[in-house]
Design brief:
By secondary structure, the chain is an alpha/beta fold. It is built from ten helices and eleven strands. The protein starts with a strand and ends with a helix.
Amino acid sequence: MRVGVHINRFDHPGGGPALGAELAAAGAAAEVAGVSWLSVMDHYFQMEFNGGAEAPMLEAYTTLGYLAAHTSTVRLGALVTGVTYRRPGLLAKIATTLDVLSGGRATLGIGAAWYDREHHGLGVPYPPLAERFERLEETLRICLQMWDPEDNGPFEGRHYRLAETLCVPAPVSTPHPEIMIGGGGEKKTLRLVARYADACNLIPSSAEELRHKLEVLRGHCESAGRDYDTIRKTVAYTGEPATTGDLDGFLRDVEGYTKLGIDTVILCPRLGATSAWMERFAAPAVERLAGLD
């Protein structure tokens, strides 16, 4: 298994003026450590359980563009883009820009969105859950159409209508930037993974739960005529050992994942500065996970 890192806090002791240098250092340290993935949250307000709305939060795609300029090998993405935050055509253009400027290292991580406070706080419409999933599916279709060089025509959906789906320059990634759908909902989210995604991201509480979710995904793939093995499986690890530096505890937590076909374990340390932590924890984690079978 490979190791990713999800940067999810920006409460650096040096405040806002220190964040640029810290993020650049984190990107460099991640690549030295052998980390394969770097992500940030797509939120306007910090989540309540992670410091609260008054805590510092950076806009996701601006931050990813900055990280692209300070890295050269690590894959970059938001974990995950809220479908309600940007019009789909603009989102496809934003993800394409990240892909072009990073040399083909962009993943479009996307989900149905959930954080109502930031929507209401900044005046972003927050439709009911069923509609958000409808918008998510239309957004996936729009992105794929915009990334299809043979189809620049209109898109007519229930929620979105585009007169043209031009996207120039085209993405560097072929055939298009990776699409990763985040979430473990068994009726809707995993069905969308089977139909549209190149990768999925799950947050399991145990290997047993993960096994169950993957079996549900396999069933959706069979129904959709999709090869289950073509989907890259990732998990977000939110356990305390990633923050406290308990490497043995982390390995015990994830040892059951190795036989389930997980490609990447994404560490989510709740730290305002991760550059030093990369060397202290992420690098040994990369080495130890590489040795598991």
